[in-house]
Write the structure tokens for this entry.
Amino acid sequence: MAVDSTLELYTTLFGWLFYNSIWDVLVATGIVFLPFLGILLDTIIRSYAGEDAEEAGNTTLRIVEVAFFVILIAAVPATPLNAVDLSFTPRAVIGTPAQPVATVNNSRTTYGGGISFNAAPVTVSVPVFWYAVMSFSSGFNRAVMENVPPTLDFRGYVDELRDASIQDPNLQHEINDFFRDCFVEARSKYLAERPSSAAITALLNRYGESDPDWIGSHVYQEIPGYYNSIRADTVREGYPWSALRDVEWDASNNPVYGKPFCTEWWQGIQQSILNELGDLDLLSAAAEPGWDPAPRRDTVIQIALINSPPRWTTRGYDFAYGNLVDFSVGEPGVMVSVQNAAQQGLAAYGLGKTSVSFAAYLRVFLEAAPMVQALILMGLYALLPFFILISRYKFSLLIIGALILFTVKFWTVLWFFAWWVDQNLIQAFYPDPGSVTTLFSTDLTLKRIILNFLTGGLYLVLPLLLSVYLGLAGIRAASQLDGATQAITRGTAGAGRINPRLGGRFKGKKGASK
């Protein structure tokens, strides 16, 4: 049986475990027989109200038969539900590798595995009726979603861009050294000379006018006199010594590693950054297939550098700039402390502004919705004994219970539909190559506000509409079924009471025949 989230693997088992426990207590205490006492009282009241005693007895007998049937199919746990039969298959998303199927024994999360939700039952018993409802709901959900064409999770992609940063301290330190040894010197030379050539113009046209403003500039990499002639100031591990390049050492007494040119050094740093970002480069390629790969990769790296910017470091302590420069050794100066405090204040303000934005709420909702659904289902399963008991074992009310359970399970399809529409609207609103990466994540115009409003409304309105539709249909169906059940339980003698005019017609025809 398929479930709709990893957490639901465990809440399903524990929900029915609680159901069995509650049902056993109700049986042991005799509370399950209280509805029959109510049925008996109804019979006595109908007898005092003038109903024929034999007819009242027959009606009561049929009501009891229906009640026992309801208990048999919807109350008594009889069908085994094995933990090995439960599985969760993540939906297919373009640009990301297929996710493995999660099971109770291997959820690939911190659920289960001796961490949380321990001692999950291997097998629980479920009433036949509710087992059928769960199986139908799960199969129906899976069949509907399988027919929807896959798309890319653009909001997830933008969230990954927003969270992209360089966490490896060694790589951060290497970037800082490259910034100091290579970029500062190359940019100073470029700004001093202001060179102009067809090659530089072509590079600026391809990579943008701001290309010389970041450490991975293609102008500095491809134009002679910049990164190809500037070297690291210290020996860099990972770049073997070369007799043609590292002329400071004799061939007979050379170190293992040398001082690479900045072009070679940046290529190594670039690959390390891409490795640090994992599948983000592949995800950006899937999100922006029409974008030139080189500028696209540069943009991803620049976003990671913006989230963890390089810092100026010196080779030693300089008392002349002790209060102005943040050194790699010693305590920061006064001006640096003030600057850091100001930056932290601005960051806190930006974080607070983002946290109250609609996009942030939407992101939290999407993460929490499957968890809320799984917990609600667990509560529904566990509290079903009270629902059946309070309904006095009426078969008509089982229809309402089944529709409630189906509605909550179908939320998954509605959220999936809203998510799918959201991704296609993003493509429609930002069709130009690179616009999703460079504009969607920072766009605060009316277009972005409308997009957030529409998709956020779908996530909330669709489940509400379904609940209203199925609620009205369930009440109507339960009413019709309850009327049919009353007709059956009352028998032929009660037909006149159910429809007096029909009974009167039969009497009139009988008198006329006489």
User: Anything to note?
Assistant: The first strand starts at residue 79 and ends at 82. Residues 314-356, 492-514 have pLDDT under 50 and may be disordered.
